[in-house]
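ok so i was messing around last nite and threw this chain in just to see what happens. nothing serious, just curious
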Amino acid sequence: MAPFTSASLYVGDLHPDVTETLLFEIFKQVGAVASIRVCRDTITRRSLGYAYVNFHTVTDAEHALETLNFTLIKNRPCRIMWSYRDPSIRKSGLGNVFIKNLHKSIDNKTLYDTFISFGNILSCKVVTDENGVSRGYGFVHYERQEEAEQAISKVNNMLLSAKQVFVGHFIPKKEKSHSERFTNVYVKNLDPSIDESELKIIFSQFGTITQAVIMRENGSSRGFGFVNFSHPDEAKAAVTEMSGKELHGKLLYAGKAQKKSEREAELKLKFEQLRIERINRYQGVNLYIKNLDDTIDDEKLRAEFSSFGNITSAKVMRDDKDNSRGFGFVCFSTPEEATRAVTEMNGRIFVNKPLYVALAQKREVRRAQLELQHKQAQANLAARAGLGNPLYTSPATTGAPVFYPPGAPLPPNSRNQSFMYPQQIMSRPSRGWTSQNQPTTRPGAYQGMPNYGVPVPPRSRPSRQRGGQTQVVGSGNGRGAQGGGQGVQTGAKRGFKYTPNARNPPQSGLPISQPNPNLSSQPLGPDVPGTPLSIPALAAANQEERKQLLGETLFPLIAVHEPQNAGKITGMLLESLDWHELIHLIESTETLLSKINEARSVLQSHAEQEGDSLDAPQQ
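result:
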């Protein structure tokens, strides 16, 4: 054995439970151990199955290699070799021998003892599966190329444990993948009447056949077999001529014999390429349509979209009982037609339902977008719950109400507008008002919405005029009613209702709105009393009016299940969902409960962070 300058040994094939302490107890018996390290995964810290043992002297390392190689450690034979810091020796392939067709009983030690007579072995390994059973092939790495050549010439085609083995030069996988040279041909779709002799006669015209076999089960042909030629050119000619040829009324398939892993990798690559081609072919022309009525079929869907261009296919997806699943696909011939259809049809009412129309996407892309939207919605809900941002709002420029939870700070853009909560108006009459003359809520609003605040113009201060009349003057400081509800505007301008005996009635000539005693019994819906909430009305309304109508319908539904936080949850849903999804919430109690629980969990987590109970009364 040639001398080595390093006293470091590689110890492989270790059990996962082997530790440095156990290895030290074993290796200290042959010499003074300098250090031991079991290599582990950086994240899980589980053993990778190999270790390095460093001795103080090369002599002790040689003694350990000779005496402890293939020793059982936790019922596994370890494999010891010199540790090489330079990987070029291992990667070059020089002196590396490949052996196949090994008997299952041959292990590392038996293989080592067989090939040690031809030279100094750097590494010897029989490849096994996850259960430790031999896969029938292995490798022997010699120190010099001449030793490897001698082993190949002496052992190739010899019998080892009653099996003829093949011994040759190791060919790296990269070189194998670029090589189309093969001798073994796989033949399938064989007639059951064909046997090995007939198969050999059929393929003998292409060259010398070393072996022909038909795979059988219980003595019956399985319809495929293998033909091994002596030269790769003969095998290639057989594949070219015989693949697709009819034999006994069946079309044969002939190709290169592959391992199962190679065949699966090739098929996976082929199917992936077909999938990419199909996606590219329909990119930008295939539309996804959902929220379809159950009465819509393929023909009705095609007719509805036919005005936008040439439709190559239109299909409504159905379940196993042939019931519509509520969505489908329409494919156009050009991207321009598809874009026009998306622009015109998205949100359009089709059989009393608003359509959702968008370009079709791959499932993984759509899933990633939905996950991102869900995370953003959760973040928005948490931010609104924590910062007191508007929960149920519409722009002040339209004159529609802007709703805030009681006690929440006002947004930074409220400098030119004041805000007041109804309960503050009801409980604290300002100067010139009496408690029996409190303003009523506006018509069309639900009477049980206590958590909403109503905006008023800039805070007013009283100033005396002649005759003892009190005039309301805006201060413009934007602080609103948080100072005790003192910024109330004259009711006539805001539509507040007064009783005839009020001390400060509106000026003469202005109309007085009379309260409606039956207001609380009006049905929920749009501002027209007695009219139920309808999808055409929502579609015709602008964004602010639509949000107002949906909010007034959602609030009482949520209040049934979560009365304490109905206002907050209503605002959360209005801000995080589009109106198509809000309609679905109104129609589906199960989906509504799911959203209520989701919003409540966000509020609860924020309340826990703040050290408050979710349902604690507001100060």
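not much to say yet. The first strand starts at residue 8 and ends at 12.
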